[in-house]
């Protein structure tokens, strides 16, 4: 029981991180209709910027942890947002009216480029960071097994919930959210009604990058080790999460992320950790067979 | 563009480059004596910013667009030359091992190019003709290579006996994978194949008792020349290749003969593949592939069963990858899971896209370029994948239809009698 509870906590933490990345995929897919393959790399860049900022702050003498973490968060969000903007501007915008596969292939190229760029400028070896937030609550103890909820896990979950809440309000009640929903429904019509489509799409990429940067920072704090290759697998799983929850649906992305995190945690906890990715994709295929539009997605009506 | 506007634009680009470069290029962390130290590299940031400024300025000031329109017109004229180019390429390919400068290395390289051409043609059926995106193509390639390796190891099958099995296995795996997702929207197929590519790799790495794990499999079956092996002595009292042709046996010469034989085998298989694809495109199933790619709803209205037609394209693509995988295994005489990672799939996609989707000759040119370029740039090895990714983006932005964007229609209706009668 306590082992189960511990896996549940670990799974939810992991799932929160996947969910944050998945939102970037699902938003872009909803509006532009493309898989932003480079999004995993954006998350990886967020992790690197966090780690570097943390050490630069250490050199600069900022050692009070809350302040340092706040600055790291701001820096990661800011710089990564510019990366998201630049990627869209360089690799996707010129291809908006091109055939369907063109942006996807360009995105794959961008992903390879960013991965090797980071490898080149930051080195191929694993970078590590000392644990910043220690300790946690001991929830219950049975047979000598202590169920622990660390402060960091609590912080990750709280931050994710807060971001999700803020984000849902933004989509539902601000002019930007309205513009995004309009573009999602019909880009041409939205443009005719005076919405700056290019800017809305740019903003979507920037928001996605900001959320990915938060996820990147959390992973850096949580695991303490990052390398230039973490974006590939995380991105793939986050996209799986988006599809699982129903692509285009924001609550779906979060739900999908949590499910993927839980599947991974329980599979590694009870079965063979080496095959946890196989389990994740197996579930994805099963969901696609029985619920092609995902758990929360609406079935798509194709019109001529 | 006027200079003032161009300068402003370039300044903006340079500013963004500055923001991009500061965190990742400007600083790096390293370890020294157990402590983490931060090093700054602002000179690199300056170089990057100046390069972006100059590049962007030059880009806006040079009148690219006028030139481009002209070159398009030229392209549409050399249809005949393309066919000539194909025959010329074939001639060179046949003579290649006997050219005076041919070395073991060059034959090895040419075999690699041919394997990628096979892969490119196979994926071309899936992506170029049927319009399905397969992001895990390397998985089918792996199935082929491992079928050869494991059939040799467990059943003692030789290369030629195992070869059909490699294609069949890859096709079966492809059908099993694609059948559940093909009725869905195309992007799901992309993500499922991507996941499958990873799964195959994970299984190959972790199922140590069967696949040998990360160490791979050694000593794959080597093709025999109509039953005559390339070795010093033939098992069971038969003749070896060297004995049959009365050649003096030496290990070095034998290795070369074997390489040339593998080269010609795969060349023959590639030509067969080409013929097969050219024929298939004219058959109803091939026309149905292209029709589905262009407009699924219209094709369904005309009575085409989309799942069956897509499945045939997917399975044929997988089968060709299986054959290519078998040759890859024989060529390297060693397989390991790391030869079949996502980068491999991305390379094959790049070949298809760069070549112009659906163009057979384009795939050949793209395979030659993408396989040989890294060989020239060995000293720039660390920049290789960087440039590879950047050029994938650049090609999509400038020439989204590929190098040979011209594609002849697969089928032409005969001219109506009235038109032929006209003077």
Structure description:
The complex is a heterodimer of chains A (304) and B (423). Chain A is mainly α. Chain A has a single domain (2-290), classed as ABC transporter involved in vitamin B12 uptake, BtuC (Orthogonal Bundle), CATH 1.10.3470. Chain A has 11 helices and 4 strands. Chain A has helices at 2-32, 39-60, 65-92, 101-122, 151-173, 175-185, 187-192, 197-223, 230-245, 250-270, 276-290, and strands at 127-128, 136-142, 145-150, 225-226. Chain A has a two-stranded antiparallel sheet with strand order 1-4. Chain A has a two-stranded antiparallel sheet with strand order 2-3. The longest helix of chain A has 31 residues, at 2-32. Chain A starts with a helix and ends in a 14-residue tail after the last helix. The mean pLDDT of chain A is 86. Chain B has helices spanning 3-26, 42-61, 64-75, 79-95, 104-129, 137-155, 159-181, 186-206, 208-211, 241-244, 251-282, 284-294, 296-301, 306-332, 342-354, 360-376, 381-398, 417-421; strands at 27-32, 35-40, 217-218, 334-335. In chain B, a hairpin with a 2-residue loop joins β1 (27-32) and β2 (35-40). The longest helix of chain B has 32 residues, at 251-282. At the A-B interface, α2, α3, α4, α9 and α11 of A face α1, β1, α8, α15 and α17 of B.
Report the mean per-residue pLDDT of chain B as an integer: 80
Q: Can you tell me the residue ranges of chain A where pLDDT is under 50 for at least 5 consecutive residues? A: none
CATH class of chain A: Mainly Alpha
Radius of gyration of chain A: 19 Å
What distance separates the N and C termini of chain B?
A: 49 Å
Total strands of chain A: 4
Shape of chain B: globular
Q: Supply the number of structural domains of chain A.
A: 1
Rg of chain B (CA only)? 25 Å
Q: Could you give the order of strands across the largest sheet of chain A?
A: 1-4
**Content-based structural category of chain A:** mainly alpha
Sheet with the most strands of chain B?
A: 2 strands, antiparallel
**What is the H-and-E element order of chain B?**
HEEHHHHHHHHEHHHHHEHHHH
Helical coverage of chain A, percent range = over 70%
| Helical percentage of chain B | over 70%
- The beta-strand count of chain B equals 4
Cross-sheet strand order for the largest sheet of chain B: 1-2
Oligomerization state of this entry? heterodimer
